[in-house]
């Protein structure tokens, strides 16, 4: 009996070792593959890419605010403030069609317009659009005039009304400046998805699809080609990067 | 034959002078204290929010800026339109243009989230932003008015006066167009997004400027003739009518456009304080009453009536600016046309965004007015801006052209 057990042990050990060695060999390759997908630090942002999102309002659950919570955690939007003065980069909105009575639930965030009015009106160039379509505020040169807030048709921006503490290093914020959704640019540059999109997927709703609108092979582009989607305030002709399905 | 106009400085020994200087200095200190607190603690101490992003300081600032461009009109009428009747008043007019503008800009800058970064705004220009243009227009206006004043005061430069006057006149028209365009260009907000705002602001500037000018003239001139007030009085009435015309055209256009019925109903009937300020403040106190005081046979000859009409038209203009600037923001944005907002954490479904200005905002605004006053008083003490005599006997029939 003993003679029989011994080779069996050997086989098991052999399989274990093989699995570990194989894992150790393949994992870095997988990791490198992931990194190669991300933008290199010294690589300039390219206009060949246009980051965007498709939000399926039929999948967005009423009462779920996983995207909002994820944004608050990711960017440290945790300051104590009044509802009127608190920064909100993403918010949940419930809508009812006045004519048909159909009810919708959707997340509202900076629409990352192709022709952003906030960028047009900013006197110092603090509001700017990256080549890849992400609209940002350079908090170091924002003078806090709030003209961008007056100009934004989506009320997507917040002014910081009080002193902030414990800001995240990758998401600079400060009193007296205006801010809005950055489309989690720090994550996107690392080849990841925005925190809200991840949270929505983790919760199983999968109402938010993020990707490159310029890449015909991206899941987002394929989906956009397949389904009917619309933008908010199309009359403004701002061509937002955020599109809604089912609205 | 024309008389030579002589000018005087204010003596500056009268208790009223010191009283005004003292009060203004106190108000400036209060304003600076408010600005310090707004920067130190943040705008949370004001009534401004993420919904009402521009508040009381902006009403004060725009009031002063608009009045500054309008007050120069007296000098323009004198040198551009060659009305010799206004010659003696041109210096004071250009001085007030500078001082009012400095007061207004100070309020605007001190309300910024980062006034310490003003250098960024002064050194980088986004030429698609009307704000950037305004920075150039405001600074340029001050420079032009200083040169204009020098030309008016320097005997050798008299020949250049009409040219400089014309430049200043054109510049001020562009400047007020720029100020009106700050709102006119805001396509997202229904109360704005209209090309009628720049001309409305120009008309309003002429009323505010002339009213401020006449009040100060009445205050500082010991012997002011009754007849000398007759002409600007008529002009003030015409200008009040011009503002009313633009306001009427603005609202009629909005009432015609179905999509804007909501905002019209809001301002004209349903917004509480803004409705009250529009009808009571602007229409009644700022338009009907001054017109009555200026034109009704019973009041028209009284200097008190004219002074009161000036004061009321300033009050009316201020009310109108409040309704435009804050009322326009209080009406919620229509982000989802055709939809009713049933839930939102960011007040998307509100029927009206509330706003109550705090004391800090008034302190900052009053500080701006006080800065204008102190600068004017000090300048009048140092240099001769005021005509020495403005009695009726000083104005010969020729001058009443």
What is the gist of this entry?
With 247 residues, chain A is an alpha+beta fold. Chain A contains 7 helices and 10 strands.
What does this structure look like?
- The complex is a heterodimer of chains A (247) and B (401).
- Chain A has 7 helices and 10 strands.
- By secondary structure, chain A is of the alpha+beta class.
- Chain A has 2 domains: 1-37; 51-245, Alpha-Beta Plaits, CATH 3.30.70.20.
- In chain A, the strands form 4 sheets. Chain A has a 4-stranded mixed sheet with strand order 8-1-10-9.
- Chain B has 2 domains: 11-185 and 357-386, Formate dehydrogenase/DMSO reductase fold (Up-down Bundle); 188-204 and 222-335 and 348-355.
- In chain B, 66% of the residues lie in helices and 2% in strands.
- Chain B contains 13 helices and 3 strands, in the order E-H-H-H-H-H-H-H-H-H-H-H-H-E-H-E.
- The model of chain B has no long low-confidence stretch (mean pLDDT 93).
- The chains are: A alpha+beta (247), B mainly alpha (401).
- At the A-B interface, strand 2, strand 3, helix 3, helix 4 and strand 6 of A face helix 5, helix 6 and strand 2 of B.
- Strand 2 (90-97) of chain A pairs antiparallel with strand 2 of chain B, so a sheet runs across the interface.
């Amino acid at each position: 009996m003993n003679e029989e057990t011994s080779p069996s042990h050997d086989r098991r050990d052999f399989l274990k070792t093989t699995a570990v060695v194989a894992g150790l060999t393949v994992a870095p390759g997988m990791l490198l593959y992931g990194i190669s997908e991300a933008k290199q630090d010294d690589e300039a942002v390219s206009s060949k890419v246009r980051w965007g999102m498709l939000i399926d309002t039929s999948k967005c659950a009423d009462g779920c605010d996983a995207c909002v919570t994820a944004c608050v955690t990711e960017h440290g939007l945790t300051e104590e403030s009044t509802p009127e003065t608190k920064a909100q980069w993403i918010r949940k909105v419930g809508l009812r069609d006045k004519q048909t009575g159909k009810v919708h639930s959707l997340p509202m965030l900076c629409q990352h317009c192709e022709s952003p009015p906030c960028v047009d009106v900013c006197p110092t160039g603090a509001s700017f659009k990256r080549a890849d379509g992400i609209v940002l505020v350079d908090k170091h040169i924002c003078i806090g005039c709030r003209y961008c807030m007056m100009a934004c048709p989506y009320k997507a921006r917040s002014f910081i009304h009080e002193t902030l503490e414990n800001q995240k290093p990758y998401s600079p914020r400060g009193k007296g400046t205006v801010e809005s959704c950055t489309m989690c640019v720090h994550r996107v540059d690392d080849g990841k998805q925005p925190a809200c999109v991840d949270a929505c997927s983790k919760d199983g709703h999968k109402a938010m699809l993020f990707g490159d609108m310029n890449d015909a092979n991206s899941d987002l582009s394929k989906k956009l080609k397949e389904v009917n989607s619309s933008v908010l305030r199309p009359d403004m002709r701002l061509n937002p990067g955020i599109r809604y399905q089912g609205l | 034959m024309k008389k030579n106009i002589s000018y005087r400085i204010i003596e500056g020994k009268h208790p009223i002078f010191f009283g005004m200087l003292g009060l203004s200095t106190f108000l400036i200190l209060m304003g600076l204290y408010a600005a310090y607190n707004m920067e130190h603690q943040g705008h949370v101490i004001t009534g401004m929010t993420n919904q009402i992003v521009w508040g009381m300081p902006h009403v004060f600032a725009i009031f002063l800026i608009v009045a500054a461009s309008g007050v120069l009109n007296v000098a323009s009428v004198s040198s551009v339109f060659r009305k010799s009747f206004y010659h003696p008043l041109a210096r004071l007019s250009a001085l007030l243009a500078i001082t009012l503008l400095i007061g207004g800009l100070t309020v605007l800058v001190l309300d910024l989230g980062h006034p310490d970064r003003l250098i960024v705004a002064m050194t980088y220009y986004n030429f698609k932003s009307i704000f950037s243009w305004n920075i150039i227009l405001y600074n340029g206006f001050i420079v032009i008015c200083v040169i204009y004043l020098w030309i008016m005061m320097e005997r050798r430069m008299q020949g250049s006066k009409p040219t400089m006057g014309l430049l200043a006149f054109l510049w001020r028209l562009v400047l007020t167009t720029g100020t009106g365009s700050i709102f006119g260009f805001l396509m997202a907000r229904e109360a704005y997004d209209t090309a009628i705002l720049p001309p409305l602001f120009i008309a309003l500037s002429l009323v505010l400027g002339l009213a401020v000018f006449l009040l100060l003239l009445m205050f500082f001139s010991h012997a002011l003739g009754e007849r000398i007030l007759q002409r600007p009085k008529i002009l003030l009435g015409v200008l009040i009518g011009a503002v009313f015309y633009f306001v009427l055209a603005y609202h009629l256009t909005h009432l015609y456009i179905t999509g804007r019925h909501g905002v019209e109903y809001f301002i004209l009937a349903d917004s509480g304080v803004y409705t009250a300020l529009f009808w009571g403040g602007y229409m009644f106190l700022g338009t009907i009453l001054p017109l009555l005081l200026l034109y009704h046979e019973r009041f028209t000859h009284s200097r008190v009536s004219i002074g009161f009409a000036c004061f009321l038209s300033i009050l009316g203009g201020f009310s109108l600016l409040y309704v435009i600037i804050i009322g326009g923001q209080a009406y919620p944005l229509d982000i989802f046309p055709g939809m009713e907002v049933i839930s939102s954490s960011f007040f998307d479904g509100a029927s009206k965004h509330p706003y109550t200005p705090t004391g800090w905002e008034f302190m900052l605004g009053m500080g701006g007015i006080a800065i204008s006053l102190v600068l004017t008083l000090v300048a009048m003490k140092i240099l001769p801006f005021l005509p020495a005599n403005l009695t009726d006997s000083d104005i010969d029939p020729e001058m009443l052209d």
